[in-house]
Amino acid sequence: MPRKPSYDRNELIDRARDLFWRQGWAGTSLKDLEATLQMKPGSFYAAFGSKDALFGLALDRYAQDGGKRLDALAAELGALGALQRYPVLILEDSTAPACACMLAKTLIELHRRDHPLAARADKHLRRMEARFADLFRQAQAAGDIGPGNDPVSLARKYQSDLMGLRVSAERMGSDALEIARQISQGLARL
C-alpha cells in the first residue's frame, strides 16, 4: 500500500510560488526547488511531475490570491473603494517576495520562448482585467464614476498602471507608495 505523503501540498506550492516569483522560471533550478521544498528529486517528481507543472500551480495560486484580495476589498469597501485601495495594498504587502507582478514577469520572460506558461500567465492577466472592468461597471452603476467612462478601457489603463507601479516599486521601494496614492486619487475624479 502506498505511503501517504508527509507534506502539506498547499504549503509547498506557496513556497514554490515565492521562489518562482523572486527568481523567475529560468532563474529557478530543480536544485533550488528541491532545497526550498526540502524534497528529494523522486519525491518532487512524484508530487508535481515537473518544474513546469509546479510553476503552473504557482501561477494559479498567485492569481487566485490576488483575486481573493480584490474580492475581499470589494465586499468591505464597495467597487470604487476596492479599486482605490488595491494599489496601496499590493505595495504594503510586506510578505511579498517581490514587488513586480509574477504574471507580468512570467509573460515577459516566457513569451519570447513561446512557452505555454506565458499563455497561462496571459490568461490570468485577462481574467484580472475582466475583474477590474466588472468593478468599474459596478462603480458606474452606483453612480461613483461617470456614465461616459468605458469600464473596459478603464480596466486596461488601471491594470497597466498597476504593472508600472509594481515595476517602479522594484527600484523605488516605499517611495512608490506616493504613485499608488496618485492612482487611487485619480479614480475619484472619473
Automatic annotation (TrEMBL):
InterPro entries: Homeodomain-like_sf, HTH_TetR, Tet_transcr_reg_TetR-rel_C_sf, TetR_C. Transmembrane segments: none annotated. Residues 6-66 form the HTH tetR-type domain. GO terms for molecular function: DNA binding. It comes from Pseudooceanicola batsensis (strain ATCC BAA-863 / DSM 15984 / KCTC 12145 / HTCC2597) (Oceanicola batsensis). Residues 29-48 bind DNA. Keywords: DNA-binding, Transcription, Transcription regulation. The keyword Transcription regulation applies. This is Possible transcriptional regulator, TetR family protein.
